[in-house]
Amino acid sequence: MKIQERTGAGAGRSAVPAQPSVGDRLPTPPRERKPALAALAVLLILVGALGATMLVLQVGDRIEVVKVTQPIPAGGSVNNGNVTSVMVAKDSSIHYVEWSQLDALKQLKALSAIPAGAVAVGEMFGSASGIAPGKALVGLSLKAGQFPGSIKQGDIVAAYRVASDTGSSTGSGSGSSSSSASGNSLIVDRATVTSVPDANSGDITSSTNKAYTVSVDSDKAAALAQAASNGDVALVLVSSK
Fold first, then answer.
1. Domain tally for the chain?
2. Is residue 56 part of a domain?
């Protein structure tokens, strides 16, 4: 009985279908190659690496140049109070004024108005003053009390002839009247300050005379220069409008 049962069990197992062999599997389609996309990826990697290299080189090759911090009018000059230093990427096509050339730059004049924030380049300055037609530049040597302490380049001022102490107490009454008539009169109603003393040249409120330059109409230049030579000029700030 037991022999027959074992035989029956073996016959049942032999009826299970056998698994297909490895050689009977369905073939898989070949993977499609895209050489163009691979080449494009390599090219993009190379371009990115080159761009990063150029950026690093430019950042490392920088120079210290002059930057304008206060507006400079035409005919004005650079001083320690209206410029600062800034680092920029070196570019041979741009004629930057390097910070080491500041002393030489102070000897030149702005050929046209230069706004604050501009980086100075050689084309902005020259030995000529860049005076507009019909204008003249007049130098003034002023002492404390003859100019506002806050005066700066680009300000609009009026120039007055102030009465001199000389001769005010001498002579007859007619002489006193003549002195009074010639004093305290308006010479120029609107003049543009083109140059002021260097901020580091000393205390601006000291008794030492300070050199200023103003741009005026040509027909007013002679009268202003004559009064300035006698020390009879005072400047007053007026509205720029």
1. 2
2. no
Report field, pTM of the whole predicted structure over 0.70: no
Q: Which of 239, 120, 126, 142 is nearest to 197 (CA)?
A: 142
> How many whole angstroms separate alpha carbon 94 and alpha carbon 28?
64
DSSP-assigned letter for residue 123:
G
More confident residue, 1 or 121: 121
Angle among Cα 240, 208, 211 to the nearest 5 degrees reads: 40
CATH of the domain at 111: 3.90.1210.10
With CA atoms as reference, report the closest residue to 115 among 150, 163, 67.
67
* Structural contact between residues 144 and 231, judged by C-beta atoms closer than 8 angstroms: no
Provide the b/e sequence for 148-179 (b: ≥16 CB within 10 Å): eeebebbbebebbbbeeeeeeeeeeeeeeeeb
DSSP secondary structure string for all residues of 8-32: HHHHHHHTSPPPPPGGGSPPPPPPP
132 vs 228: which has the higher pLDDT: 228
| Maximum alpha-carbon separation in the chain | 168
Residues forming a β-bridge with 135: 217
Q: Which residues pair with 91 in a beta bridge?
A: none
